[in-house]
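Database export, one record per block. Field names are fixed; values are copied verbatim from the stored entry.
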Amino acid sequence: MTLAEKRLKVCENGHRFYKSTDCPSGPTCDRENKPNSGFLSKLSSPARNALVHAGIDTLEKLSMYTQKDILKLHGIGPASLPIMRSSLKEEGLLFK
């Protein structure tokens, strides 16, 4: 994708960035908002943002969904599932 196909966006914090999707999250805010610990810190920014946007911010909430449900979220790809499964397993939890 070329820069011409992306649109200039400005986040609520005033950071300017180019993006081709309607996702309001930019790279500067993603870096600033990355958690230091927990399962969300192990995921990519798109995957983390998808979960948080869906209200899934704990492993207990994550365990209430099937892997198929999670993969339907925009920003979640198959590479994120092993990280989530491992984090769930560490807490004695599983996907639904």
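Remark 1: DSSP finds five helices and two strands in the chain.
Remark 2: The radius of gyration is 15 Å.
End of record.
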